[in-house]
What does this fold into?
Amino acid sequence: MTEIQSAVPARGGAASGESQQPPRASDRIVSLDQFRGWAIFSMVLVNFLGEYRSMPETLRHPEGGLSFADVVVPAFLFAVGVAYRLTFLRRMRRVVRR
It folds into this structure.
């Protein structure tokens, strides 16, 4: 049984009147959580601390070219897209089973 299949409850859910429980820690993809956390930390670092002159130039948006600051938001959107697809597939399996 794959990681996603084990996260899908066999029966019940919000539609049958039961309260939906959050996923167990073992059902989560740890690497995706870590990547998303890195992206959020990087956004805070770039947006708030990057304004100070004492911070390295790589944390600022350059006039031309690509820097670390330009990669942060696309990385976060990638993580959100992956998580959305996994959630969507899990919900589709629930609908098909009913």
